[in-house]
Amino acid sequence: MKYSKIFLFFFIFLLFHQKAYSKIEVDASYVIIQDHLSGEILYEKDADAQIYPASMTKIMTTIVTFDLLKKGETSLDEMITISEKAWRMSQSGYSSMFIMLNDQVSVEDLLKGIIIVSGNDACVALAEGLSGTEKEFVILMNEKAEEIGLEHTNFNNSSGINDVNNYSTVRDILKMSRYMIQNYPEYYSYYKDTSFTWDRTGGDPITQGNRNPLLYKNIGADGIKTGFLTVEKYSLASSIKHGDRRINAVASGFKTRNSRSRESVKIMTWALRSFDTIQVAKKNEVIASLDVWLGKKNKVEALVLEDIYMTVPKRKKKIIKAVIEYNTPIEAPIAKGDKLGSLNIYVSGELKKKIDVLSGEEIKKANIFSRLLKSFNFLVWGNV
Fold first, then answer.
1. Which residues are catalytic?
2. What is the pLDDT of residues 328-350, one digit of tens each?
3. 203-208 long-range contacts, Cβ below 8 Å, gap at least 24?
4. Were 113 and a residue from 34, 97, 269, 368 both cysteine, which residue would form a disulfide, CB within 3.0 to 4.6 Å?
């Protein structure tokens, strides 16, 4: 057997009339921008510095709730009784959906109150209703943070109100935002709603608008969450979808509400105009047929278990190359899912990704007569 390479893809982008992408200056203290599909970080500025995430904390509050919905441990129509602690949050000047003491509110309405109008009262009510106390719910938030891989984050409440022990980074907030979009698209759709009307018991219906300024601009925004604390000023976790592409960004330390809106539009537009994202391979689709030695079939279908994307700058010339490397021929028997080799992806000659290539089928060993004949042919002709 010998080491072999199969040259799969060769993309060349010739953009003769476009200048190399320009760097961007963002008027915020902490910034990170990512292509959603490839996971490529397009820009960052002090992305690992500790910040107080303010209402961006609510992203994790909703993720934990979505987990409980998925597990069947709650439902959208489960009714939560409003405690005095939750009710007092609606009376203290914080952003609120204005719940009423001892009222019963559905999980879905509380989720909308958190996502759309950033209700701190809704966070406490939901946390208490699902876990008994907000403290117990916060334990679930921190367990989920560890599961997702948030390395510099600790939650100490469900809403993000002032607490020195409630901290994160824009990189960690980006991770949990991307996780939510990937794993809960059916619930993520709440984030694009521009208003929420709640027909509360014992009071007039209340309609409030979404606080995310990007939803009101024609740029494809569908989330995610604003934040404000005096110490950090204004912040925003945002996401826009343009065709098949999605850009996620998190920034904190905008000086004003207007600069948050203006700068966020700028960074999203810059990311879309400055980069291309290319799909190199599709999950569970055959990318090649590789030689088999002494099997009932002479070829085995090879595939990868994930969608693979690469993001590259829109420069005058860019090359992406994908190569399967494996030992050839592959000897039978081969079980479905066996590792056959690796898919190596290069950008301008530099290895960027290495993904396992697996067998998409079972190949049994040929019978003794076929094996003898193939071995004879190999000895005489060198033909496997």
1. 55, 58, 118
2. 888 889 999 999 999 999 888 88
3. 203/98, 203/100, 206/97, 206/98, 208/97, 208/116, 208/117
4. 97
